[in-house]
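We emphasize that the prediction below concerns an isolated chain of 469 residues; any contacts that depend on oligomerization or on bound cofactors are therefore not represented. The input was used exactly as deposited, without trimming of termini.
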Amino acid sequence: MWVSLFTGVSPARHGRYFGRQPDAGAYRVAAFEPNALKQEPVWLAASRAGKRVAVVDVPVAPLADELKGIQIKDWGCHDPTFAGVRTCPPWLADEVRARHGSDPVGPCDRPRKGIAAYRQFRNRLLQRIDTKTQLLCHYLQEGGWDLFMAVFGDAHCVAHQCWHLHDAGHPLHDPAYARACGNPVQDVYVALDRAVGRILAAVAEGTTVILFAGSGMGPNYTGNHLLDEALLRLEGVAPSRGRQTVQAIKQVYRRVLPDTARSRLGSLGDRVDELSLARDRARRRCYAIPHNDLSGAIRFNVAGREAKGRVRRGAEYDALCASLERDLMALADPDTGQRVVDAVLKTSDLYAGEHLDQLPDLLVVWNRERPITALSSEKTGVIRGTRMSQRTGDHTHRGAFLLAGPGIASGEIAEALRVESLAPTIAALLDIALPNSDGRVIAFEPITPRFDSAVAMPGDRSGAARRGS
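Result of the prediction step, given as a token string:
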């Protein structure tokens, strides 16, 4: 989502769909580095056009080598790329640390037990919000910016880790425990609301302001941990001996090692898992690959793309898509009869671009009304398993977009916007070109008493599109 936001193009053109993606020519997945993006951020185009820009903690963004302005990366992110703050220009990092210190939270995704641990986590997030607000106001007050872009990751962190304290319907919610811990999710959201107010107070009069909040949160219910077993059974293939051995070791590892030790060994465990999976994947027609828990991801073993491809493009590929959609939509919870899959999406129907082959071939959107601990169908039989994750909250597909500024009348955009529309809209506000975007400039001028849902093409300069952001 974030890369599509700041480049204005879809994953099939910028090349990134997740933090770990298929390694070209192999049956393993590897970390996707920000510098591997195939499309540049909007702020680089603005900088080349002579605009003065500031970019602070935008997730998964590459660090610029040169910029007319500043970039601060990984001062306080949910998922930092570097071990500590990096900046453009490089000398700015020392100034940031001297004036504002270092991130008081650190990596969010680690196990927490006990009331004191959750309270400390909440308090450090509140401290980080306050300090980042000071940091942003400090650089805002320097003035002269054409584009100032900053992101808070704290709502992301707290909702992943503390959703069960907030959501009374969550299976792990304990009312007594929640009363003792308080509601960290609410506390962080309130602090962020105050932070936005403080930042707006520091913004010069007449500035156009965009507020974007994407990938909302809800309970972390997913069937990703069961998907690969379902695919094995649908294909009628048994896992290799190596894979069975690693799975047996993992079960012991999860039972014996404490959460903190597993967290520290996480990357090593992933690498061992990938080595065992590579041989297994090479002999199959399709297999599950890592993705956010909102939806499972399926990669086909395509002839000419994978080293030992078994599925030919064209009619055979399309037939596999159709059969998997039927079979996956038939999956249900064996205990309740409730469906567990909401939709099966073919990525080539959603996106077009030169890097489409780096994406999954199918996405399996889960029904997240309740936890998925089992699934079954006539073809798969019953499959059971529990998701092993310290995240009790996870992303939803909902987001919010607000914009205010001179000449922008009050109103509502009736239809949902594509996230790819944000970068070309920012470019239009700066009166610069952003060619080849997949999104369109959002039209702000009301044609009727309500805002029209149509969007303007990039050449449209009506209303606010002439003003800086």
